[in-house]
Amino acid sequence: MESLPVVDLSSPDKKETASRIVHVMETVGFLCLDNVPGYNIEAEEELMEANKWFFSLPLEKKLSVARYLHNNKNRNFYRGYFGLDKDYSSYKEGYEFGQDSSTCPGYERESDEGFPLTENNVWPQPDPNENEDERKFYTKFKETVGKHYMRMMSASVEFLQLLAIGLGLPETYFHHLFVPDTLSTLRLQHYPPREFAPPDKAIEDGQVVVCETHVDSGFVTLLITFGFTGLQVLLQNNSWLDVKPRPGSLVVNLGKTLSESTGGRIKATKHRVIDPGGE
């Protein structure tokens, strides 16, 4: 295999598409999803600009929305920014969001006190001395991330409908897990270059990794590579497949929770990100 299988979400033959999704997820466990409604190269570029803007902010600004683990002055435990750890095998920083009225306009839900997965999102705020043009970036960032969250939720639900059909289940079999309330998370990620020797634990069969070999824990992951290389998927023959960039498409894989719920029929495939040698 030289590249991941491709599934076209715009295909009019739902049964054939559903059957192909199940076959790929039984064997490879990863695929590229083309023609996702509302998602295209322009949307990808817009999100990339938002990504760059946030991670280029001063560390102090990022820490203002960090999880409690990274800033004990904050009360958010799950959503928000997490920082770099040079001693860990994975080397990345990220920023996570979930469902609330800021990402899903009109959404209302009573707060589950003490349950971090449903806490409100936290957003960076402009300083008093920032001018009007600079303040617009904060608003644009929030709008862009919110639009993308809704777009990915819609795509996820459609994908799970097709998966259900392919498994011989009712089309809405998975809906009650994600609609109308969901714990689904959007994560922005940044892999900066290491400016130091990587720890021994970051070396896997001679390769330096910035995200160690793992399987996802949840249900379904929709990933944008933004044209970067580094993602590798472990195939059934124990060889690593380099995931080639495919602009305007999503990389999809399924997690351990879904795999176990199907008795292992659907694969939660191991994958990693090797150090591309730059940002």
UniProtKB/TrEMBL annotation:
InterPro entries: DIOX_N, IPNS-like_FE2OG_OXY, IPNS-like_sf, Oxoglu/Fe-dep_dioxygenase_dom. Residues 182-279 form the Fe2OG dioxygenase domain. Pfam families: 2OG-FeII_Oxy, DIOX_N. One of its GO terms (molecular function) is metal ion binding. Keywords: Iron, Metal-binding, Oxidoreductase. It comes from the Eukaryota. PROSITE patterns: FE2OG_OXY. Belongs to the iron/ascorbate-dependent oxidoreductase family. This is Fe2OG dioxygenase domain-containing protein. It comes from Amphimedon queenslandica.
